[in-house]
């Protein structure tokens, strides 16, 4: 009997301990005072007792703003750098219709002083600095202000000699002499002479255009064939062209400077059939005598004119 009592006592103590320590709040049996603060269980009646808001009083639902697709702003392409163009001086026609020729700048002709033809030498120059001229043995110095001779160009330097016959040499910069000024001054004189020669040639053409075709002297017998084609001489030259050069007295072209004559080729000149004969001749330029190709145009058995093969400009 005693053991049963002890067992009941033990189970009772264990249940009391569980009820105090293990039972959840709200489910305790012995220690009910610990059930205070427990959450009220939700039932159907509880839900009904909760006041519901009036749908009419609810603010209207604001729709979420639609996402506007972002359009990438096109990146402007970089502006191309302006093309550098050479400024050409405007040339106006004179009252008689003559248009002065357009001349390139000296910088263009020399590729900005990096290319000077051998025909420009020898040329006297003035030294702007003391210059040492060397020989195989020893050397000598010419003071600034002295005269020397430019005998060649080794870009970007000038090859000098103290005299035209001296074997001594000096290599200096262009800026150490007055070479550039000498070329520029000579070019200005050459341009003026060439313009004057072309003006004179234009005046002759105006005078000849006023005369009728029958008033012009006919070519000598044997100088042209029946179809107006120039006839060559045994040496390959053309008597008709030589006679014209002797009578025209061109400034830049002389008959004795022609080294090669080509065969006549049919062409058109001012809308009419003509013949073109190409010749290679040595003409004077700002750098001295230069070999160039020139076309002679022959129409109706007469020389119409001489033109540079490259540019088409008339030969003055």
The total of beta strands comes to 11
What is the count of distinct domains? 3
The coarse overall form would be: elongated
- What string, H for helix and E for strand, traces the elements in order? HHHEEEEEEHHEEEEE
Characterize the biggest β-sheet: 5 strands, antiparallel
Provide a count of the helices: 5
Low-confidence stretches: 42-59, 67-88, 212-216
Strand share of the residues? Answer: 15-25%
Looking at how many chains there are and whether they match, the oligomeric state comes to single chain
Average per-residue pLDDT, rounded, comes to 79
Tell me the helix content. 10-25%
Distance between the termini: 158 Å
Structural class: alpha+beta
State Rg: 54 Å
Question: What is the compact description of this entry?
Answer:
This protein has 316 residues and is α+β, with helices and mostly antiparallel strands. It contains 5 helices and 11 strands, in the order H-H-H-E-E-E-E-E-E-H-H-E-E-E-E-E.
What is the element layout, followed by pairings?
Blueprint: H1 2-22, H2 44-49, H3 106-109, E1 123-126, E2 131-134, E3 139-142, E4 147-154, E5 157-161, E6 170-173, H4 179-209, H5 239-248, E7 258-261, E8 265-269, E9 272-285, E10 288-299, E11 302-308
Antiparallel strand pairs: 1-4, 2-3, 4-5, 5-6, 7-9, 8-9, 9-10, 10-11
């Amino acid at each position: 009997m005693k053991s049963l009592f002890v067992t009941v006592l033990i189970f009772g103590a264990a249940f009391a301990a569980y009820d105090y320590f293990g039972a959840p709040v709200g489910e305790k049996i012995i220690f009910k005072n610990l059930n205070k603060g427990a959450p009220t269980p939700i039932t159907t009646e509880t839900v009904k007792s909760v006041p519901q808001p009036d749908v009419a009083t609810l603010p209207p639902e604001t729709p979420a703003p639609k996402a506007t697709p972002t359009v990438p702003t096109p990146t402007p392409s970089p502006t191309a750098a302006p093309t550098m163009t050479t400024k050409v001086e405007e040339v106006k026609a004179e009252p008689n219709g003559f248009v002065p020729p357009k001349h390139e700048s000296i910088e263009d002709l020399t590729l900005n002083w990096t290319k000077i033809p051998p025909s420009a030498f020898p040329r006297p120059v003035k030294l702007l600095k003391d210059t040492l001229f060397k020989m195989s043995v020893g050397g000598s110095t010419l003071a600034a202000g002295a005269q020397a001779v430019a005998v060649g160009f080794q870009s970007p330097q000038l090859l000098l000699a103290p005299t035209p016959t001296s074997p001594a040499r000096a290599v200096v910069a262009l800026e150490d002499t007055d070479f550039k000024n000498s070329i520029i001054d000579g070019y200005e004189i050459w341009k003026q002479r060439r313009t004057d020669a072309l003006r004179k040639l234009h005046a002759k053409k105006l005078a000849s255009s006023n005369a009728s075709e029958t008033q012009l002297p006919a070519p000598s017998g044997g100088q042209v064939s029946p179809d107006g084609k120039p006839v060559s001489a045994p040496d390959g030259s053309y008597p008709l062209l030589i006679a014209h050069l002797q009578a025209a007295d061109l400034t830049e072209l002389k008959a004795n400077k022609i080294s090669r004559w080509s065969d006549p080729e049919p062409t058109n000149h001012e809308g009419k059939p003509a013949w073109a004969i190409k010749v290679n001749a040595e003409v004077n330029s700002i750098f001295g005598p230069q070999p160039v190709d020139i076309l002679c145009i022959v129409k109706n058995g007469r020389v119409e004119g001489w033109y540079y093969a490259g540019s088409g400009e008339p030969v003055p």
